[in-house]
Specification:
The complex is a heterotrimer. By secondary structure, chain A is an alpha+beta fold. Chain A is about 65% helix and about 10% strand. In chain A, strand 2 and strand 3 (about 240-245) form a beta hairpin. In chain C, helix 1 crosses helix 3 (about 50-60) and helix 2 (about 40-45) crosses helix 3 (about 50-60). Classes of the chains: A alpha+beta, B alpha/beta, C mainly alpha.
Chain lengths: ~350, ~300, ~130
């Protein structure tokens, strides 16, 4: 059974490995270059007295394009494997009628499915794992400078989480193929389901994997451009208000825009807006409105040291989902709805 | 003689369509069974139920005393060639044989290799490039080389030209002669069935109309031509299966233990094709005709 | 020995095989001691059910024309004690006279044929 699965998969795996090798070559070359420039830049950064931000920004901007490409690739590959390996796994057999050939050999359907899911699924996980490993290595210096690997997009494109995604996308594809019995619609459904889960996860699940840490952050309106926080205006006229979005290097701030509070903990969003509308060009002008001093906001965040705990949790969740989906396939097949 | 395939009240429903109803059959071991019937009568459904590709919605089916496809041992005992003889287009003929060898513990590699060689099929050829006849032969090779006790063939020759059809049946009969397997094959080409089958099952509109050994069927069915008369007026022992009346003449197909000779009529034997067509004709269910027993003994 | 089947003839397949062996004996293509093809070979060559071949061979045994040697095959053991053409003559004359009478009685060609065939068949059935 393993032989047959391998024989059917052979070409796909070779294509995937060839693509992976090409990408590896590109990342290896640019990654070594990057390390070289990082070494020169990092001395500038760590030892810099002034213009550090500029040196960092310069270093990051040099690799913006490639970095987006690499990140995008790691995000896309599990979905692609789900669509091109998972969805046709059973649907193609049913479409071409070969399931009636293979199900009449001396191998039970349950075993056939188990071997197929395990073998091809493992291949999908390995391919994705290698890619993620490569990209994680490649982007190491960039992530270290930008301190943003906990952000939702990069989190999904580094470390071990992509392995879970690949396993999940693949089994979802297999299930879709089994239920829909036609390759192309199964591919579309796989993509839709996987994309939906990938969007839902960082919004609705990942922030709550562990109780976030709550803390107060001082807001100094005269330094709003420091990058530590961004002021967000909303509404107009009497409804206008200003909130603040805080960012903390390395941490993942999960609370989003939060109200600016005064010393006694009162929301000052309205009076801030008033102050800003009085001085539209200014960042924190307070003429005409009373803007209280000593402002702060309350945020919730996941500290940077939880990064790997989150990676493991997320991988485990997706692997569990994959096992569930695989179990469902097996149960459905045993019902022999042919 | 023990039954190799037994069904009791077997039925299969697809949504609102009843593909097979109330099918009770007992197929004796060692026969080559022809399964005939118009398209959509339930032939494929019955075969797929027998090999376990689908499960019944009512009734039971057992092959060699076990439910179909209940485990690897059971699967090994039943060979199935699906309609249109599916094969992996991208895999070569040799790959298919390797597939058979890997997936079947009882695989007869010599039988498989011999068959392919004698058929003149290039083992390096991809299955997708084979002709219809060659693909059917490949599918048959896969099914017979696992050395099944029961071989199920769903319309194996329907898509083949006469030469390929004859080739296919020759290979099949050789296998039967050598290994004594029971074969059930569906077809609507009665002339082919006449050569190879010694047992017949006719399905009409999802029901079994007729089942029995060909020889018994042939010796107990007659065409009776006479001056116009009512079927009821025929003597006892002549059971009217079908009656056609024209101006002055009545033609009956009757079932009887032996031919009854009478100057008032001509009674002659029927050939298998006429017999099958009689039962497949919906008009065969004439008033006065008793229901046909499912097995004639 | 080559067999063939005519499924349109209305003659049972096993009887066709029997007739072909008898024909071969009559034509001298087969003679005593010859081995008949194996059941498998006939089945594969003619595309016919092996049981049909077995039945034909049993019928030949019954007629005393063949006998099986276990593990070796089925061998021709008899010759057809058919009449010589000279011995046919009196029978033919008798048949001609009968045909004349049938004509005189008003039967046309088809009538004669039908009468002959039904009588012949009934006779065979009564014999067996």
């Amino acid at each position: 059974m393993i032989w047959l699965t391998w024989r059917q998969l052979r070409v796909h795996v070779l294509v995937a490995l060839a693509a992976l090798a090409a990408i590896a070559l590109l990342l290896l070359v640019t990654g070594l270059q990057m390390r070289h420039s990082y070494d020169t830049a990092v001395t500038a950064v760590t030892g810099c007295a002034s213009g550090c931000a500029a040196a960092e920004a310069d270093f990051l901007s040099r690799y913006t394009g490639l970095s987006h490409l690499a990140t995008g690739l790691v995000i896309a590959v599990p979905g692609l494997l789900g669509v091109f390996w998972g969805a046709p796994l059973i649907a193609r057999e049913v479409e071409t009628g070969t399931h009636r050939l293979v199900w009449n050999q001396s191998v039970t359907r349950a075993r056939w499915l188990a071997v197929k899911l395990a073998t091809v699924g493992l291949a999908a996980v390995v391919v994705t794992g290698l890619l993620s490993l490569l990209v994680t290595w490649w982007a190491g210096p960039l992530d270290q400078v930008a301190m943003d690997r906990f952000s939702p997009l990069l989190f999904s494109a580094r470390g071990i989480a992509p392995l879970g995604y690949a396993a999940f996308a693949f089994t979802v594809g297999a299930c879709a193929g089994l239920l829909i019995r036609r390759t192309v619609p199964a591919m579309a459904v796989t993509l839709a389901v996987f994309a939906a889960v990938q969007i839902l996860m960082p919004v609705a699940v990942r922030p709550y994997l562990q109780e976030p840490v709550h803390t107060d952050v001082a807001v100094d309106l005269s330094q709003s451009t420091s990058g530590r926080y961004t002021l967000l205006r909303s509404g107009s006229g009497a409804e206008a208000r200003v909130d603040v979005q805080v960012s903390r290097p390395g941490d993942w701030v999960v609370s989003g825009a939060s109200p600016v509070l005064d010393r006694s903990g009162r929301d000052t969003g309205r009076s801030l807006a008033c102050g800003q509308s009085a001085a539209p060009a200014g960042d924190g002008g307070a003429e005409g409105c009373t803007v209280p001093a000593d402002l702060h906001t309350r945020i919730a965040y996941q500290p940077a040291d939880r990064y790997w705990a989150f990676q493991w949790s997320e991988t485990a969740i997706y692997l569990a989902l994959a096992v569930l989906a695989g179990g469902f396939c097996s149960w459905w097949l045993r019902r022999r709805r042919s | 003689m023990t039954a190799i395939l037994e069904t009791a009240g077997l039925g299969k429903r697809y949504g609102r369509r009843q593909a097979l109803s109330d099918c009770t059959l007992s197929v004796p071991r060692g026969r080559v069974v022809g399964l005939v019937g118009p398209n959509g009568a339930g032939k494929s459904t019955l075969l797929q139920l027998a090999c376990g590709l689908i499960s019944p919605t009512s009734g039971t089916v057992t092959v060699l005393g076990e439910p179909p496809a209940s485990g690897p041992e059971q699967l090994a005992k039943v060979g199935f060639v699906a309609q249109d003889a599916p094969a992996y287009a991208a895999l070569t003929v040799a790959d298919h044989l390797r597939l058979g060898a890997r997936l079947n513990p009882g695989w007869d590699a010599r039988l498989a290799a011999d068959r392919i060689r004698r058929l003149g099929i290039d083992p390096a050829q991809r299955a997708g490039a084979l002709s219809g006849g060659q693909r059917a032969q490949l599918a048959l090779t896969l099914a017979v080389a696992k050395r099944p006790e029961l071989l199920l063939l769903d319309e194996p020759v329907a898509a083949l030209d006469p030469l390929a059809r004859r080739e296919f049946l020759r290979g099949l009969m050789e296998f039967v002669a050598e290994h004594g397997a029971t074969v059930i094959l569906s077809s609507h080409l009665v002339s082919d069935l006449e050569r190879v089958c010694d047992h017949l099952i006719a399905l009409v509109a999802s029901r079994v109309r007729l089942a029995g050994d060909v020889e018994e069927l042939l010796t107990t069915h007659f065409r009776l031509t006479t001056a116009r008369r009512d079927g009821d007026s025929l003597p006892d022992g002549l059971e009217v299966v079908r009656a056609v009346h024209t101006g002055r003449q009545s033609t009956f197909v009757v079932r009887a233990e032996t031919a009854a000779h009478d100057p008032a009529w001509v009674m002659e034997p029927l050939d298998l094709e006429d017999l099958v067509l009689t039962y497949l004709d919906p008009a065969a269910a004439t008033p006065g005709a008793r229901p046909v027993p499912e097995t004639l003994r | 020995m080559e067999f063939h089947l005519d499924t349109r003839s209305g003659v049972a397949p096993y009887l066709q095989l029997v007739q072909q062996v008898r024909q071969a004996l009559r034509l001298g293509l087969l003679s005593e001691g010859d081995r008949l093809p194996t059941v498998k070979d006939v089945a594969a060559q003619v595309a016919v059910n092996p049981n049909t071949v077995l039945k034909a061979y049993r019928e030949l045994e019954h007629q005393g024309l063949a006998a099986p040697k276990p593990g070796v095959g089925t061998f021709v053991t008899g010759t057809l004690g058919d009449l010589s053409p000279a011995e046919h003559e009196p029978l033919r004359r008798e048949l001609r006279r009968w045909l004349g009478r049938a004509r005189a009685a008003g039967l046309d060609e088809e009538g004669i044929e039908a009468l002959f065939r039904t009588t012949f068949r009934t006779h065979i059935e009564e014999e067996t």
